[in-house]
Design goal:
single chain; about 170 residues; mainly alpha; disordered C terminus
Length: about 170
């Protein structure tokens, strides 16, 4: 009930915003986020290990989503509710969970685990990417929330598997 109510509020908000703004947040912000992550890591003179942790976290989140998507089939909101989405949907498959959300959160959490500086920026961008997907009408709120949890789990698992102690010990 909360999922459909929150999703409907965000669908309406998306239709009230300029379509270009929704398209940028829903489709292109994740690419800007990735570029900013590369710049932030490069400027911090990080090792290739940090880049590898981010890439591995994103890849694990994407793979986990693929497995979950096979187990849970859910139509996109614009299909099940019968409205026009605000972005191009030619390449979209199932709705649950959100790949954009999972990857954005995996990148943000992996960065936050590696570097504390500016982590708030990347966590905020991941949040905007997730909300943008609902604003555009291509995901329900639970799709992006589950994607965020998958991203968190991927970031934690990759960090743990990398042989380092827990996050707090590295700051």
């Amino acid at each position: 009930m909360i999922d459909s109510s929150l999703s409907e509020i965000l669908f309406e908000a998306g239709r009230a915003l300029p379509r270009a703004v929704v398209a940028i947040v829903a489709s292109y912000l994740i690419w800007a986020m990735a570029a900013l992550l590369v710049i932030a890591l490069w400027r911090a003179r990080t090792t290739y290990r940090a880049f590898a942790l981010l890439a591995a976290s994103a890849a694990l989140a994407y793979a986990a989503n693929a497995v979950i998507g096979l187990a849970v089939v859910r139509e996109r909101p614009f299909v099940s509710l019968g409205f026009e989405p605000l972005i191009n949907t030619a390449h979209l498959a199932g709705s649950f969970p959100s790949d954009h959300s999972a990857i954005a959160w995996a990148l943000a959490f992996a960065y936050a685990f590696e570097k504390r500086k500016n982590a708030w920026l990347f966590l905020s961008l991941a949040f905007l990417v997730s909300v943008g997907r609902v604003l555009a009408g291509v995901h329900f709120a639970s799709d992006v929330a589950t994607g965020a949890l998958v991203g968190l789990a991927a970031g934690v698992l990759v960090r743990y598997a990398s042989g380092n102690r827990w996050v707090a010990a590295t700051f």
